[in-house]
Amino acid sequence: MTSVPQRMTAIDPEMPGGPEVLVPVDRPVPQPGAGEVLIRVHAAGVNRPDIVQRLGAYPPPPGVTTIPGLEVAGKVVAAGDGVPREVIGQPMCALVAGGGYAEYAVAPVGQCLAVPPALTMVEAAAMPETLFTVWTNLFERGYASEGETALVHGGTSGIGTMAISLCKLFGVTVIVTAGSDEKVAACLAHGADHAINYKTEDFVARVKDITEGRGVDVVLDMVGGDYVARNIKCMADDGRHVSIAAQGGMQATVPVFEIMRRRLTLTGSTLRARDTAFKALVADELARNVWPHVAAGALKPVIDRTFPLAEAADAHRHMESGAHMGKIVLVTG
Question: Is 231:219 a contact under the CB 8 Å cutoff?
Answer without folding.
Answer: yes
